[in-house]
């Protein structure tokens, strides 16, 4: 009898062959747990013929992405990270006539809107473009709407204050029927788009790439490939930001960057 791990590997292989959706390089233990839950919730047996039937149903891929990727995020998640951005990076960004920022793995837009608020408060948002991308179309749909459950707002506004936010946080949204609708002016300079870090390379040259709490779900080899792609798309002297449990230390790009704060903020250096 096939073990469950073999069954999941086979399922991931089929997913790749049929849709080009490649989860094979993700970090295994947590991916296996989530795929296994997806298989049992969708009553998928170990028989590949049954998978094909489900693969062909409308919405299968979106449902799979929604259930298998981890989408948790917060506005101003890790407030110290955002105060470090204000102190160390915004003065650098302010020197450019136009600023390009990429936020890959943006989930439902929480991180992109946090940047928008900080850049606005620093008076430079009008000359910035934030490319906020994710693999999950459901997340992107939510991100474009900029609507968040009201019960998350207590956390967001506490984070905002700890990050050094200058305004009354409630000026950025209107509360309505259990939801907070964020101000349309915040999304003016954000482009939300679908992008898969595993199979698509980047498309621009950025002064800042902030990819936080995404690489942690990837295996080493995949992290190395994605970091190399980031490196090729960060301008000389630009910045790379990662999540608190992520690092470039093991990677081939480590000698081209200097960590500039106790947050995972790396500055590209000329060699
Ligand atoms: C835990 S969330 C991180 C959200 C935000 N960056 C933060 O730090 O709060 C991880 C996000 O990465 C996205 N993701 C996972 N695999 C991806 C891939 N191959 N390409 C692009 N995004 C991916 C998921 O859909 C999810 O929205």
Automatic annotation (TrEMBL):
<dbReference type="InterPro" id="IPR029063">
    <property type="entry name" value="SAM-dependent_MTases_sf"/>
</dbReference>
<dbReference type="Pfam" id="PF01739">
    <property type="entry name" value="CheR"/>
</dbReference>
<dbReference type="Pfam" id="PF03705">
    <property type="entry name" value="CheR_N"/>
</dbReference>
<keyword id="KW-0489">Methyltransferase</keyword>
<dbReference type="InterPro" id="IPR000780">
    <property type="entry name" value="CheR_MeTrfase"/>
</dbReference>
<dbReference type="InterPro" id="IPR022642">
    <property type="entry name" value="CheR_C"/>
</dbReference>
<keyword id="KW-0808">Transferase</keyword>
<dbReference type="GO" id="GO:0008168">
    <property type="term" value="F:methyltransferase activity"/>
</dbReference>
<feature type="domain" description="CheR-type methyltransferase">
    <location>
        <begin position="1"/>
        <end position="248"/>
    </location>
</feature>
<dbReference type="InterPro" id="IPR022641">
    <property type="entry name" value="CheR_N"/>
</dbReference>
<protein>
    <submittedName>
        <fullName>CheR family methyltransferase</fullName>
    </submittedName>
</protein>
<dbReference type="InterPro" id="IPR050903">
    <property type="entry name" value="Bact_Chemotaxis_MeTrfase"/>
</dbReference>
<dbReference type="GO" id="GO:0032259">
    <property type="term" value="P:methylation"/>
</dbReference>
